[in-house]
Design goal:
Layout lengths: L1 H19 L7 E5 L6 H17 L3 E5 L6 H8 L7 E5 L2 H8 L11 E16 L8 H10 L5 E4 L5 H13 L4 E4 L3 H10 L4 E5 H9 L4 E5 L16 H4 L7 E9 L4 H15 L2 H9 L3 E2 L7 H22 L5
Parallel strand pairs: 1-2, 1-3, 5-6, 5-7
Antiparallel strand pairs: 3-9, 4-7, 4-8, 4-9, 4-10
Helix pairs in contact: 2-10, 2-11, 4-12
Family: Belongs to the UPF0065 (bug) family.
InterPro entries: BUG, Bug_dom1
Protein name: Tripartite tricarboxylate transporter substrate binding protein BugD
Amino acid sequence: MKKLLTLALVAAAFGAQAADFPAKDRPITIVVPFAAGGPTDRVARDLAEAMRKPLGANVVIDNSAGAGSSIGANKVAKASPDGYTLLVNHIAMSTMPGLVRNLPFKVESDFEYLGMINDVPMTLIGKPGLPASNYKELTAWIAQNKGKINLGNAGVGSASHLCGLLYQSAIQTEMTTVPYKGTAPAMTDLIGGQIDLMCDQTTNTTSQIEAKKVKAFAVTTSKRLTTPALKDLPTLDETGVKNFQVTIWHGLYAPKGTPPEVLKKLNDALKAALKDPEFIKKEEGLGAVVVNDKRTEPAEHKKFVAAEIAKWSPIIKAAGVYAD
């Protein structure tokens, strides 16, 4: 009887907390499992701003980078399931199971799926001094410099790493892969000419392309983009790299066991943010497409990630790369 009473009191306490969620004097933390200044960090900060009003609470960012995003993701998986610690992650949610040895959590069962945020195309870019002004010239340059080309990325398991792996496989050319601790240092070295090429998200490359700090050669979507700075770039498919399509998506997650009432409030706030004109404008300006389909529903979000895991796991296994 005493045990049942204790459980009832705990349940009542959780119910009261859920009813009062979010408390005005307690911020909600969104963990970003990548370094500050990168594309996922930018998406998360824009989302935090857009979710503040519908939640009626402050939303802050915590960058916890490393190990293919598993460090930050594990931080959320092990956090108190009260709605005050969330995770924004990208395609890494579907690549960690195949990429990270001894993953300390299960992607499909240790999180509550809140909904998708956006779809982000990738761009193939090069250092400013690269002697090529279009993709045809880039192809010739790659052929002339086999074994000498450095291809940068934001770290093992990052979106830029995955895109780079697929690109090398598609053109059947091996390059020296140079991993960095985040997109920002990789971009700095690309601009400075220390590396030759990078395949990265439009959320990180668009402003650099606009400023002519890097050379842009192609996008990874099936159709050309409409963003002013990117609209003249061909798709890799139309350049001859057939069926090359890579789109990076972002989603929002909470720890497993978060009360349903809290999850509902968070999902409602997410949906409100995705309809916020200012948020949409910011994302479109970076070449990203805000999700407005059924993937904003938790069940559809989870189904989508499961399909992505099935898609990426064999590709990662074939490449033989791991993030320890």
